[in-house]
Amino acid sequence: MRDIVLAMQSSRIREVANAALKRPDVLAFWFGESDEVTPAAVCEAAAASLARGETFYGHNLGLPELREALVGYTARLHGPVDFNRFAITSSGVNALMLATQLLAGAGDEVVAVVPVWPNLTQQPTMMGAQVRRIALKPDASGTWRLDVQAMVDAVTAKTRVLLVNSPNNPTGWTLTRDEQVALLDHCRKTGTWLVADEVYERMWFGAGTCAPSFLDIAAPEDRLIVVHSFSKSFLMTGWRLGWMIAPAQATVQIAKLIEFNTSCPPEFVQRGGLAALAMADEFVPALAARLRTCRDLLLKELKALPGITVAVPSGGLYAFLRIEGQTDSLALAKRLVAEHGLGLAPGLAFGPEGEGWLRWCFASREPQRLTAGVQRLARALKL
Fold first, then answer.
1. Which residue of 38, 180, 248, 362 has the fewest CB atoms within a 10 Å radius of its CB?
2. What pLDDT digit, counting tens, does each position of 100-139 carry?
3. Which of residues 229, 256, 280 is at a domain's end?
4. Which of 298, 58, 315, 114 is nearest to 200 (CA)?
5. What is the rounded distance in angstroms from the CA atom of residue 225 to the CA atom of residue 378?
6. Which strand (E) or helix (H) includes residue 47?
7. Which structural domain, as residue segments, surrounds residue 292?
8. pLDDT tens digits along 194-230
9. Same-domain status, 78 and 188
């Protein structure tokens, strides 16, 4: 483990951010979060919890009230899911790490759809597993697609875990229902666990209230773990609160892992989560509508620039773009921020499959910031 940690690559996005230290005027679009603050009702619920003295250890699996609220929230989106399948976690990334600790060990094969948020593939590597990467491919318009047959061929009886992030960070690619059915059916045949990172399911611009989910088609006993977070849909990135849905027998084991990782999520943070769920039916669709406006504005202005390839993402918070003639995304991102005050994430941060691309987070309470950012990019392209 020590050697693995020593060999790990630090965040490429942080590396770009560090290059901006001498530019106080930077327009930063590199991190995966909105610049909107957490709703007041959520903050007030957490503050009231602290005022009541709720600062002690809680249940490993989280407040029963919050788990019950998530049962109702999930049912409205995907149909009934049993209470005993829910675990509250100290962030979505903590949920992913718990799933990895439960399922993947030294020498196990893990297959992952890439490019993807690097934590997703680094976690099994840290556990000693061997990660096999199956790449999405962009077409001429910049739309990324999955070769389902290649994925099915890659997942065999020796594959312990299949990792899928949909809607995808950074590309915006989203599994269709038919693709989900094909992957789940195949994993049933091979005995492979499917870990679905669905934290962007409500950041969805297609038909319906959320992106297609494996919960819509799975049985309770399927080897499926679905990971969620309060970060994106409720503007709670800094709160570090998430949840996971697993088979009931797996949740018993997850409770043990939570004990040895974080013991329990803070109760006052969970009270904030309860307040968020109470306003979810109105707040989340309104947020998604604002994000759609930002997405459409950014994409329209980017497509007006020469040499830009970018597709309209069906979900998520990001435009993933390529600039003609640019192949070193890290060097380009550093140059854009140091010389032009434009902060974008290098595609290399999401694996070699993303090299040559840049990720632009379009979640902003002030859409004019996006326009100002495009103007800075336009100036950079003229040099």
1. 248
2. 999 999 999 999 999 999 999 999 999 999 999 999 999 9
3. 280
4. 315
5. 43
6. helix 40-51
7. 2-38+282-382
8. 999 999 999 999 999 999 999 999 999 999 999 999 9
9. yes
